């Protein structure tokens, strides 16, 4: 099974919607897909949850959302919101998610 990990860095909601679209399509076609929020994108979970975005909700329900960067969440004031949303904090690389860990687990990395 092909494994894909999307690392979202941009905080632009419209750009992120394309990650959701592609992740859901890949999941539907049988791929193992993960989305990781990094950089300014750590603010998006609250925005998407507040708007009740159906694609985001489907990604949450299907386990596609793997987590958010703990260091960036703290630095950008999104830590409490992400904690309240029950998101997994990723911090194995000096407070940030490790791309190498995903690669070691067989994931192809896509940065957006």
Describe the structure.
With 112 residues, the protein is of the alpha/beta class. It has helices at residues 13-28, 44-50, 54-61, 70-75, 79-84, 99-104, and strands at residues 3-8, 32-37, 65-69, 89-90, 108-111. The mean pLDDT is 98. α1 crosses α3 (54-61). A 5-stranded parallel β-sheet has the order 4-3-2-1-5. The two termini are 22 Å apart. It has a single domain, classed as 3-Layer(aba) Sandwich (Hypothetical Protein Ychn, Chain: A), CATH 3.40.1260.10. It is built from 6 helices and 5 strands; from the N terminus they run βαβααβααβαβ.
Instruction: Give the assembly state of these chains.
Output: single chain
Unreliable residue runs: none
CATH topology: Hypothetical Protein Ychn, Chain: A
Number of domains: 1
What is the element layout, followed by pairings?
Elements: E1 3-8, H1 13-28, E2 32-37, H2 44-50, H3 54-61, E3 65-69, H4 70-75, H5 79-84, E4 89-90, H6 99-104, E5 108-111
Parallel strand pairs: 1-2, 1-5, 2-3, 3-4
Helix pairs in contact: 1-3
Outline of the structure:
This protein is of the alpha/beta class and 112 residues long. The chain has six helices and five strands, in the order E-H-E-H-H-E-H-H-E-H-E.
Core attributes:
single chain, five-stranded parallel beta sheet, 6 helices, alpha/beta, Hypothetical Protein Ychn, Chain: A, 112 residues, 5 strands
